[in-house]
Specification:
284 residues, mainly alpha, Ribosomal Protein L15, Chain: K, domain 2, three-stranded parallel beta sheet, 4 helices
Amino acid sequence: MQAHELKPARGSKQNRTRIGRGNSAGTGTYSGRGLGGQKSRSGRKPRRHFEGGQTRLMRRLPRRRGFVNHFRIEYQPVNLRDLERFDDGAEVTNETLKEAGLIDSAKKPVKILATGQITRKLTVRVERLSLAAMEKIEAAGGTAQETTERKVRSERRGAAKRKRRKAKPAEAEKGADETEGKKGAGKAKAQKGEAKAEAEKGAGETEGKKGAGKAKAQKGEAKAEAEKGADETEGKKGAGKGKAQKGEARPRAEKGGAETEDRADETATADKPEAAKDSEGDGE
């Protein structure tokens, strides 16, 4: 067989449906789009889940809130006090717990909780044990073993928290001592800072007093210079006034001299006619 002789399987290829080629083709006139409306037009289509404006199905269905972890492992809980029914030295497993009626299925994982106390020495082998239950079983002389690897760290964190709580009082006392030491150091620093502030305050006051004295001295010098300038101004004013008075006296003196000369001339003139008259009388 050659490549050009290969043919598709019967029925795998079909002719394309010819749209809008007459009613005889089955999809003529309206081309399978119905009798008009938004969906029969080309271009924009209604958005997904749109139901013409009514409340869509996704909103009408009841909602589920929260989160469901599909990988969550559901353990069958067994309290520690329920293990008291086993004899000393007995081995506790899923099968023995199922026989004792403490769990429903031996195929599902089991977790031993620390509720209650135990006094028997047991060998416990289950999928998970709480750390507190493990401590109680070992304290009673038994052994505890987990058959699966622990993947969750929450219980380890809880044990670490309990350990920290036990060590917390000692740390609190140590912290109190350190706090007192820090308080003493802080108090000494505060006193030192106060002394330094007082010294700086005293220095500032001294500098302020010096500045005030200097300002007063400068003010006194300025006042003395102002008084000296005023005296000089008054002296200049007096000298000017004297000069003005002297100047005024001089015109007055000149005016008086002129008036005296006029008066003398008038007197001389008055005496001259009389003399002439006397001369004429004598002649007659």
